[in-house]
């Protein structure tokens, strides 16, 4: 299989993504300032998200509040870029449809899953809000964001603003809408695949 210019670009930008992540991690570990998060974001948007995710999985699997925003951002961008790559490679139907309702009527299991995961996510955010008020043990941030990522973004978004919970944390105020955009892109692609 012969690689074209686009494939070479993807290989190079993902190697750059891996290297930039490693440099950023070293800066976080050994300096008080000087991190290059903005450069990491740019490399991710340019197609290097797979390299960044590989670096995270190999070198820095532990997540904490300081790196949560970048992780949710890179994960969502990675999924969107996979869909865009599939579209560029010709996996889109000849005619484009936006009939979401018909798609969900035809795919009842997916519809049921999305309803259940959004109810579970909404309930998890509500339980976390109650625990915060009562100063009890809280639900982990990774769990709340994970529920949003696997399909519960609407439930998370509704709970955030209905209960005024997690609305001051960028990894929620940016991360949850980004996961919602990711879900829309996924559904749009599934609706229009060959």
TrEMBL record:
Transmembrane segments: 7-27, 39-59, 71-89, 109-127, 139-159, 171-191
Keyword terms, alphabetized: Membrane, Transmembrane, Transmembrane helix
InterPro entries documented for this protein: DUF1294
Entry superkingdom: Bacteria
Keyword Transmembrane helix attributed: yes
Name of this protein: DUF1294 domain-containing protein
Organism of origin: Blautia ammoniilytica
Pfam families the record matches: DUF1294
């Amino acid at each position: 299989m012969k690689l074209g210019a686009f494939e070479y670009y993807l290989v190079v930008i993902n190697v750059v993504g891996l290297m930039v992540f490693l440099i950023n991690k070293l800066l976080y570990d050994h300096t008080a300032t000087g991190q290059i998060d903005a450069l990491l974001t740019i490399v991710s948007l340019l197609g290097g998200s797979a390299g960044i995710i590989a670096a995270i999985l190999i070198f820095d699997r532990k997540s904490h509040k300081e790196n949560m925003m970048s992780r949710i951002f890179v994960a969502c961008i990675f999924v969107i870029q996979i869909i865009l790559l599939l579209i560029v490679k010709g996996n889109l139907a000849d005619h484009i449809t936006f009939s979401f309702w018909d798609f969900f009527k035809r795919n009842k299991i997916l519809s049921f899953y999305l309803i259940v995961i959004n109810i579970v996510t909404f309930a998890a955010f509500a339980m976390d809000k109650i625990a915060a008020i009562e100063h009890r043990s809280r639900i982990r941030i990774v769990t709340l964001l994970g529920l949003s990522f696997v399909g519960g973004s609407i439930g998370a978004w509704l709970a955030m603003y209905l209960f005024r919970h997690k609305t001051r944390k960028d990894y929620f105020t940016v991360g949850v809408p980004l996961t919602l955009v990711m879900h829309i892109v996924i559904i749009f692609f599934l609706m229009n695949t060959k």
